């Protein structure tokens, strides 16, 4: 009986502290928890995607080296690489059964200083990702060769893409981190809004509290204590 009597007040104090904490920080905590669960759910249930990369180089046809013309044509070829009209030049087949357009599976990037084109292929399997990248690289080389007399540059294959050993997405730590960070941001905004509301409510309450002399802070004329008697 003594033990139960000792535990009772402690349990009530703990319950009171938890209740007060939930009332004050319940909404921010809910935002953080929702962000964490959202990031975790995306990382667990999102479709797996693999990414493979191939590289091609643009060089001047006569000098066999890079130059301003090669850099300019590399940027132009990079924009043409994902187009179906350019991919039609490839002798390598594209993967079958992949949903979406080729722009969703082939991404080309270039540098403003180097005539190098990076071709990234993405797919549901490692083999499909490498197939997309290699087909785009082969198509770009053949396309550049067919227009060599017009452009004065040559497109050469540097490296073919290899099937990646691990998927590029989803990334469990990154997904959880992004989701939690989003929840913390929303929690901070919610806390700021709630703090502003509490301050405004406090100012209104202070406006209703009686003054130190015992007179209520109510607008209007202050009584003088004199009573006028009619004649």
From TrEMBL:
The keyword RNA-binding does not apply. One of its GO terms (cellular component) is plasma membrane. Pfam families: Wzz. Keywords: Cell membrane, Membrane, Transmembrane, Transmembrane helix. Residues 22-71 form the Polysaccharide chain length determinant N-terminal domain. Its main location: membrane. Residues 198-208 have a biased composition (Basic and acidic residues). It is a multi-pass membrane protein. Residues 198-231 are annotated as: Disordered. It comes from the Bacteria. The chain crosses the membrane at residues 21-45, 172-194. It is found in: Cell membrane. This is Polysaccharide chain length determinant N-terminal domain-containing protein. It comes from Actinomadura citrea.
């Amino acid at each position: 009986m003594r033990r139960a009597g000792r535990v009772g007040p402690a349990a009530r104090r703990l319950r009171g502290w938890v209740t007060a904490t939930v009332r004050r920080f319940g909404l921010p905590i809910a935002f953080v928890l929702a962000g964490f669960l959202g990031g975790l759910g995306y990382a667990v249930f999102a479709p797996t995607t693999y990414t493979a990369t191939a590289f091609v180089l643009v060089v001047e046809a006569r000098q066999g080296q890079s130059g301003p013309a090669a850099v300019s044509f590399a940027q132009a070829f990079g924009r043409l690489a994902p187009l179906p009209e350019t991919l039609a030049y490839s002798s390598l087949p594209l993967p079958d059964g992949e949903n979406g357009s080729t722009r969703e599976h082939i991404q080309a990037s270039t540098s403003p200083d180097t005539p190098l084109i990076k071709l990234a292929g993405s797919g549901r399997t490692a083999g499909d990702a490498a197939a997309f990248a290699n087909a785009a690289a082969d198509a770009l080389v053949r396309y550049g060769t067919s227009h060599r007399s017009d452009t004065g540059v040559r497109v050469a294959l540097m490296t073919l893409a290899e099937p990646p050993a691990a998927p590029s997405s989803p990334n469990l730590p990154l997904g959880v981190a992004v989701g939690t960070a989003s929840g913390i941001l929303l929690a901070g905004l919610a806390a700021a809004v709630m703090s502003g509301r509490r301050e405004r409510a406090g100012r209104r309450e202070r406006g209703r509290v009686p003054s130190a002399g015992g007179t209520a802070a109510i607008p209007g004329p202050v009584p003088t204590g004199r009573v006028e008697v009619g004649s």
